[in-house]
Structures are given as structure tokens and as C-alpha cells.
From TrEMBL:
Transmembrane segments: none annotated. This is tRNA modification GTPase MnmE. One of its GO terms (cellular component) is cytosol. GO terms for molecular function: GTP binding; GTPase activity; identical protein binding; metal ion binding. Keywords: Cytoplasm, GTP-binding, Hydrolase, Magnesium, Metal-binding, Nucleotide-binding, Potassium, tRNA processing. Its cofactor is K(+). SUPFAM superfamilies: P-loop containing nucleoside triphosphate hydrolases, TrmE connector domain. The keyword Amino-acid biosynthesis does not apply. K(+) binds at N236, T255, I257, T260. It comes from Megamonas hypermegale. One of its GO terms (biological process) is tRNA wobble uridine modification. Mg(2+) binds at S240, T261.
Length: 465
């Protein structure tokens, strides 16, 4: 039997709020077993939680302090270090009513656990060395992934594909430092020039590798956060129909933004693995029943916010003043022009628009009703998002700004380092810059990162993760 310890033990509801089939309360820390044992009674007589084998699922009852039965449940103990946090973890699986799980959480708190902060389980996994910082961040990306490609990227990060790249560069940098320092310590050995030349070659190679990784940021960011897409066009041009055709894709995931009662403001469509984050879907749908005056200011802001502009023109009707207003708004922008209602006789042509529209646009004719042209639209979007990164494994893509900034800073230090070498300066100076690059890369894996940054990263997680 285990002994009671003073270490902080945390508890939280791990399943989403609301009613569900199963609800899970998770407890982690030295005393997780003691806490759970106070209110979980196994069906088998005299079978204390503390005596459960690790990962054994045990059936029993949740009993409150007055002896009342709260629910039937399964209890699983995962003893350190073979758990998510590497601490003792106990998970209670009860029926998924929100009152039930809250009562169980309350019992855990009354018996010595404290309420976990957002992301605290994963933070402990990181602090206990189970995951590095980049892997820990990918846990959140997995939870929020909206397409297979986003999920492949996040899962690759969690498996450590990206971390391994960074670690391998850090390792090479350490070797360079060791070499340079040897030549500082033993100048008479005449290894100085060789060391410098070798360092120069290796640093150049690492710098190039960083540039390659940074090229994936554009794609990585979109796969993680979605491609902010603005759909613009006069009333009745076919915006809602296109939106419905895109969202009706079988794998499309529609997310309601909490707090909005009717249509959500943003929805995600899965376009060939790219999460298309469509801005203001409610606004687009509203135009169906009320002829909306396109406020110029509003539209300009809307277009500015977007990574991708989809501009719609009704090909079955001559261009109207409203179309011309939109054309003016699109001046010097880039995106995709969609000539809608391809199934009807055409009144305007691609060339008509090309002559009027000044900007960088690809033209595609579509019919939302026949689903015609949608494949071409999908291919165009995918090729834009993956430009330069097609065929590469998403698991090594850099996908968040903090990591991209650390890579940029490391690259800059390596650049300075090369200048120092080329100027014929002493090894000491070279070492300073290489070491800074090594530290910057360590911020990605979490080896060299401030505590407040760690706190800030985990605070973005949900409670119970
Ligand atoms: P919105 O006001 O821009 O959102 O336009 P809607 O999507 O509501 O479409 C306006 C009208 O055009 C509706 O009656 C649609 O059925 C029709 N429509 C939309 N797309 C097509 C299309 O591809 N072909 C045809 N023939 N009609 C379409």
C-alpha cells in the first residue's frame, strides 16, 4: 500500500461540459489513490483503490460523505510513472450527467485534491519530462484539429517528428561549440583554421535547414488555425449556395462559436484537408432574405482580415453597379474569382471581368447546384496553401508563431556567426552567437524557456487537459 504524501494533487472534469454518455474525472498527483479511495468503493469487498493494479478497470460505486450512492462507476488507477503526467493518476468514469461529474469532482476536492488549472495535466507531463514543449503544444492542436491534414500535422508533432529535427540541429550546434572551444583551449595545435572552416560549413547547413523549415510555416499555420476566407458578392449571386455546397461536404465540421444564438459567425469547411475558416457565415446567409447594402467600410475590413478572397459574380446576368462596386473594392487584391451559375446561359465571360479587375486573380466557373467546378476550386485552394510544401510530411511543419520566431532568431544568430567567421574574428566571438542560436532552438523544445512563457502556453489549454 502507498503512503499519503503532502504533494499537491489536482483534479478536474476531463470530459466536455454538458450531458453525455460517460463523464470522466481525472485526479493526478502523489495522493491521487488516497483521494479516490475516500469515495470510490469497489464492488469487490475490501478492495482499496490503493491496491488496484496499474491500468486495471475496477467497477464500483461513488459514495458521498453521508454514505449516499452518487453513481456507479469504473475507476482506473495509473500508477507513476506509467501515466499521462508521470504521476499517480486516477480516472473515474461515471455516467455523463453534468451534476454527477461535478459531485465527483467536489468529493475529490473535499478529500484533498485541488482544482486543476487549465492545461495543468499536460504541463505536469512536460515538467516531468514525458513530453517536450513542442509536443505538449501539439496536444492542444490534436484536440482542435478540424481536418485530417491538420490532425496528421499535430500527431506528427506529438510523436516528436518536429522536436527530433530541432534536437538534431541543437546537437550539431553543440558539436560545433565543442570543436571551437577545443581550438581556443589548445591554440598551439593549429586546429584553429580547420575548426573555423568546419564550423562555417556546418553552420551554413543548419541555417539552410532552418530556412527550409520556416518555409513550411505558411502551410503549417493554415492547417492549424484555418484559412481565413472571405466570400464576397452582391445579393443573390450564390454565396449561400456555395457556402452550403462547401459545408455539406461529408467531412465538414461546423463549429458554433459559444455565445452566438443563431448561425455562427465562423464555420469550417474541409477543402481537401485545408480547414477553410469562413468568416461571417451568418452575414452571408442573411443576405438571402434581406437585400443587404454592402457597406464599403465593413467590406474593406472584411477583405483585409482574409487570407483568401472568394469573389463571386453571377455569370447568368450582365454586370450590375453592385458588381462594379465590388470590382473597385478588389483593386490590387488577390484571390479567386468565381463565375457562378455555370449551368445557366452565360451573359458575362471571364474576359469581361479580367478586363475590369485589377489584381491577381484566378478565374473559375462554378455551379453550386450541379457541384460543377468545385473540384477545381478545391485543387486551386490546396495548391495555394501547400505551395512549395507539397508532398512533404506535415509532421515537420512549423505551425505556431512562437516557434517560427524562435527559428528566425536562431537563423539570425547563425547569420551573425558566419559574418564573424568571415571577418576573421576569434573563436570566442563565434561561440557567443552559436550558443545564442542553440538557446533559441531550445525555446521550441522547452529546454531553455522562461517559466512565464510556459505558464502562458498552458493557460490556453482547456481545464482537464
Ligand atoms: P446569396 O444571396 O449570394 O447568398 O445567393 P444564394 O446562394 O441565396 O442564391 C440566390 C439564388 O440563386 C437562389 O435562388 C439559388 O437557388 C440560385 N443559385 C445559386 N447558385 C446557383 C447555381 O449554381 N445555379 C443556378 N441555376 N442557380 C443558383
Amino acid at each position: 500500500m502507498r503512503d499519503f504524501a503532502d504533494n499537491d494533487t489536482i483534479a478536474a472534469i476531463a470530459t466536455p461540459p454538458g450531458d453525455g454518455g460517460i463523464g470522466i474525472v481525472r485526479i493526478s498527483g502523489e495522493n491521487a489513490g488516497f483521494v479516490a479511495d475516500k469515495f470510490f468503493k469497489a464492488a469487490k469487498k475490501d478492495f482499496s483503490v490503493l491496491d488496484f493494479r496499474t491500468h486495471q478497470a475496477v467497477y464500483g460505486k461513488i459514495i458521498d460523505d453521508k454514505g449516499n450512492i452518487i453513481d456507479e462507476a469504473l475507476c482506473i488507477a495509473m500508477w507513476a510513472p506509467n501515466s499521462y503526467t508521470k504521476e499517480n493518476v486516477v480516472e473515474i468514469q461515471s455516467h455523463g450527467g453534468s451534476l454527477v461529474v461535478h459531485r465527483i469532482l467536489e468529493l475529490a476536492i473535499n478529500h484533498g485534491a485541488r482544482l486543476a488549472q487549465p492545461g495543468e495535466f499536460t504541463k505536469r507531463a512536460f515538467l516531468n519530462g514525458r513530453l517536450d514543449l513542442s509536443q505538449a503544444q501539439s496536444v492542444m492542436d490534436i484536440i482542435q484539429a478540424r481536418t485530417d491534414a491538420s490532425l496528421r500535422m499535430a500527431a506528427g508533432h506529438l510523436q516528436g517528428a518536429f522536436s527530433a529535427e530541432i534536437q538534431s540541429m541543437r546537437h550539431s550546434i553543440l558539436e560545433i561549440i565543442a570543436h571551437l572551444e577545443a581550438s581556443i583551449d589548445f591554440p598551439e595545435d593549429d586546429i584553429e583554421d580547420v575548426a573555423k572552416q568546419e564550423a562555417e560549413e556546418k553552420i551554413d547547413a543548419i541555417k539552410n535547414r532552418i530556412s527550409e523549415i520556416l518555409k513550411t510555416f505558411h502551410t503549417g499555420r493554415i492547417l492549424r488555425d484555418g484559412l481565413m476566407t472571405a466570400i464576397i458578392g452582391k445579393p443573390n449571386v450564390g454565396k449561400s449556395s456555395l457556402l452550403n455546397a462547401l459545408l455539406r461536404e461529408e467531412r465538414a465540421i461546423v463549429t458554433d462559436i459559444p455565445g452566438t444564438t443563431r448561425d455562427s459567425l465562423e464555420e469550417y469547411a474541409n477543402i481537401g484537408g485545408v480547414p477553410l475558416r469562413i468568416i461571417d457565415t451568418a452575414g452571408i446567409r442573411e443576405t438571402h432574405d434581406k437585400v443587404e447594402q454592402i457597406g464599403v467600410e465593413k467590406s474593406v475590413a472584411y477583405l483585409q482580415k482574409a487570407d483568401l478572397i472568394l469573389a463571386l459574380f453571377d455569370a447568368s446576368r450582365p454586370l450590375s453597379q453592385e458588381d462594379l462596386d465590388i470590382i473597385a473594392m478588389l483593386k490590387n487584391k488577390k484571390g479567386i474569382v468565381l463565375l457562378t451559375k455555370k449551368d445557366l446561359p452565360a451573359q458575362i465571360d471571364t474576359e469581361d471581368l479580367q478586363n475590369l479587375l485589377q489584381g491577381d486573380f484566378k478565374y473559375i466557373r462554378i455551379s453550386s447546384i450541379n457541384k460543377d467546378g468545385l473540384k477545381e476550386l478545391e485543387e486551386e485552394i490546396v495548391s495555394r496553401v501547400y505551395s512549395g510544401n507539397a508532398g512533404q510530411a506535415e509532421g515537420c511543419f512549423v505551425n505556431n508563431l512562437r516557434q517560427a520566431e524562435a527559428l528566425q532568431a536562431a537563423q539570425k544568430h547563425l547569420e551573425e556567426c558566419l559574418n564573424t567567421i568571415r571577418m576573421g574574428m576569434a573563436e570566442d566571438f563565434i561561440v557567443i552567437d552559436v550558443r545564442s542560436a542553440w538557446e533559441k532552438l531550445g525555446e521550441i523544445t522547452g529546454d531553455t524557456v522562461d517559466e512565464d512563457i510556459i505558464d502562458q502556453i498552458f493557460s490556453q489549454f482547456c481545464i482537464g487537459k
